[in-house]
Backbone:
C-alpha cells in the first residue's frame, strides 16, 4: 500500500478479550472471527473517522498465532510480545496515518508517542458488522 493509505493495526488479544463471550475456550476461533469481521473495513473503511481504502493488520500472539491472513486482512504473528509487534508496525510506517485498536493503557502510550491514533475495541465493534449482519 502507498503512503496515503491509512494503516489500521488491531491488537487481536486485547480486542478479543474485551468481550466475555467465551473466547477463552477457543482463542484461535475467536481471533479468526475477529479477522473475518475486519475484512469489509479494507474496502469500506470506518466512516467518518476512517475513509476507505484501508490496510488492515491484525497482530496475533499465543494460541492464536497460527490464524492465517486473508486477502483483506494481513495477519502478523508476533514472535514475542504482541504489544512489541504493534509498536514495530507503527514505527515502520512513520509517513502514514496509523490507527491502533487496543484498550491496553501501556500500549496506547507507546504508540501515541510515535504519532499513532488510538481507538478502543468498542469503536471497532460499533463500526464493523460481524458475519451474519448483526452489530
Residues:
Amino acid at each position: 500500500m502507498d503512503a496515503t493509505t491509512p494503516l489500521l493495526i488491531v491488537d487481536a488479544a486485547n480486542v478479543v478479550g474485551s468481550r466475555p463471550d467465551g473466547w477463552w475456550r477457543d482463542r484461535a476461533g475467536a481471533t479468526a472471527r475477529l479477522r473475518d469481521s475486519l475484512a469489509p473495513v479494507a474496502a469500506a473503511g470506518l466512516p467518518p473517522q476512517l475513509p476507505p481504502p484501508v490496510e488492515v493488520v491484525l497482530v496475533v500472539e499465543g494460541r492464536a498465532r497460527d490464524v492465517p491472513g486473508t486477502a483483506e486482512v494481513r495477519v502478523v504473528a508476533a514472535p514475542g510480545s504482541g504489544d512489541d509487534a504493534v509498536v514495530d508496525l507503527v514505527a515502520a510506517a512513520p509517513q502514514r496515518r496509523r490507527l491502533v485498536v487496543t484498550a491496553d493503557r501501556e500500549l496506547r502510550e507507546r504508540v501515541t508517542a510515535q504519532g499513532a491514533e488510538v481507538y478502543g475495541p468498542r469503536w471497532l465493534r460499533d463500526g464493523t458488522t460481524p458475519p451474519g449482519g448483526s452489530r
Q: What stands out?
A: Helices lie at 12-16, 27-44, 82-91, 105-112, 121-127.
